[in-house]
Amino acid sequence: MAARPEKNPSSDSSHTGRRQATSYDVARHAGVSQSAVSRCFKDGASVSKKMRDRVMKSVKELGYQPNAIARGLITRRSNMVGVIVSNLNFYPEVLSELSARFTDRGVHVLLFTIDHESDVGRIIDQLWQYQVDGVVVAAHLEQDQVALFEERNVPVVFYNRSYQDVPVSSVCCDQVEGERKLVNLLVEGQHHSFAVIGGPKDSVVSMQRTQGAIDRLHSLGISDIVQADGDYTYQSGRVALQEVVKQRGTVPDAIICANDIMAIGCMDEARYHLNLDVPGDVSVVGFDGVRSASWSSYDLTTIQQPVESMAEAAVSMLLDRVDNEQLPPEKRSFSGVLRRGSSVRE
Amino acid sequence: MAARPEKNPSSDSSHTGRRQATSYDVARHAGVSQSAVSRCFKDGASVSKKMRDRVMKSVKELGYQPNAIARGLITRRSNMVGVIVSNLNFYPEVLSELSARFTDRGVHVLLFTIDHESDVGRIIDQLWQYQVDGVVVAAHLEQDQVALFEERNVPVVFYNRSYQDVPVSSVCCDQVEGERKLVNLLVEGQHHSFAVIGGPKDSVVSMQRTQGAIDRLHSLGISDIVQADGDYTYQSGRVALQEVVKQRGTVPDAIICANDIMAIGCMDEARYHLNLDVPGDVSVVGFDGVRSASWSSYDLTTIQQPVESMAEAAVSMLLDRVDNEQLPPEKRSFSGVLRRGSSVRE
DNA sequence: TTGTAGGCGTTATCAA
DNA sequence: TTGATAACGCCTACAA
Fold this sequence. Notes:
Chain A is of the alpha/beta class. Chain A has helices at residues 23-30, 34-40, 49-62, 68-75, 92-104, 120-129, 143-152, 175-188, 204-219, 234-248, 260-272, 307-323; strands spanning 80-85, 108-113, 134-138, 156-159, 169-173, 194-198, 225-229, 254-257, 283-285, 302-304, 331-334, 337-339. In chain A, the strands form 3 sheets. Chain A has a 6-stranded parallel beta sheet, covered by helices on one side. In chain A, strands 7-6-8-9 form a 4-stranded parallel beta sheet, with helices on both faces. In chain A, strands 10-12 form a two-stranded antiparallel sheet.
């Protein structure tokens, strides 16, 4: 507790620096009313030049800055949005992009990271308490949790998670189309036997990717497919490849991984443990287009997600809905770009 | 604007769901005073079991949650801390760790990412406005910017940035000691000619690392050293190696990089462009211990920063200073762990 | 143990 | 254009 026995409007004008200057301090210092000070910080307010100059002079001298918390209390706008990220490690770029774009628009990001998809409930409670204006979610939520946003009337945009039958806004990369491109490339390259390595069981994105690949393979008349699952990590990619080899006895022509990191794990496992040549003996493709996928050691063929476009879409969709609560939910889907590396035999 | 013509305490008790329930709503619903409701949410307050049960029943029914913003206004504790990260891409783990630990303690993270180290000034202004209780900075600040925290009386802890002569709290990895370990290992392994590749010019950490390495080399009587600089990126590591080769005409025995990502770039450049064997023709070491450094393709010898310990230290140091403003600045330094990979000839 | 009343720093309303 | 004054939702003496 800072010792501050005096009541607010009675403290001396010397502004000890201990406490932040308030609009009252400025008003007294400038010899005007407090509301005049307030108006000077609202653009579009009617205030004479003379008044403004006078106030701003005091503002400078006292180092005054409006208290955004107090402002939010009455305007019912905190200018903060929540960003929920499930596993930071996989997608730093996304967070970086979102943060930068929100900041550009004067909106601040309250960050929530979750390791265990379970404790989402607690997080959501906290969001209400902090009166965020909206939320971007890049994590899996149960349907009833999604409903909470609707109930509370808090705009929400899902990033790379789509809820098929729930009317909620989202921005996604077209996973199915991406897998089609990859499969097409592989089949044109005379690959005949396939392994598909999925991500975590509860990941809808992973499911869409693996199913997209399998569907496309089937539609091209290919049925020599084995499946294994990882959890999006490097290590799990390696293990999954072992699993594949155990299942089918031999190595398939091509391995389709639900993300780049597992694909990288597969390449390393193939090369350094199974002594195989990539792409000579086996081709590998991933999904995402992360930085390391383009490193020379891997030069992975993958689908590059248009992160900038997606982040921009998420931010503008959310803020539009903050400004206008009537806007209906909208789903936007972006095409990924096929990046042809040397991890596929052509 | 939601149509809400009535004054606060007069609205009907049906709680339309449009607006969040306030403590007044709960009080009216439970037939008690507003302060009674407030007390039920302050642990250690004197409130009878009967009262608590009664209030909590209404709380449940109305879905009430205290407004943290309003609370912060009067307690002068926002329970938010600012986290300033210079370049997210390089250290997602750190942010993840910090976020998780703050959340565990009921503190929320207001995230600020900066691409251009320049616009730090604006960021800092925003911090004041949002009344953060403290700040963790993992970015470079000018000395006068550091002083602002002192002025405003906002506790701050620097993460992996140390200011030699400024009395400010920080938690660091011991860069110099780490480089000593690396150099010792290399010299014991009969390496005689060296290249040192630094990071961005304005990075104090990079400077400490490169200078630490060079000092140790000198003290071991080695003077065959060339220097080049990158910017911590993969590509810059590759370019820097080219630069080194151009400078000295041949490839040195060992390359010491200021971080892992540049080291990885060097390895790829050496192997796939210069057709050299690593570690046969040239050894490479990095610093940080990022995930990709341990991938089989690289298996980089490096110094692993104890991220968990450092994050924990930063969080507890900061919150201690939030609770007790009198605590003097403190600098904590952690030793990194030598991770011996196969990127060094032994 | 409970209720009353004042204040946190701001914006919004309405006279002057 | 300006200045009182009343919210915003909560916490906290202080009195009952």
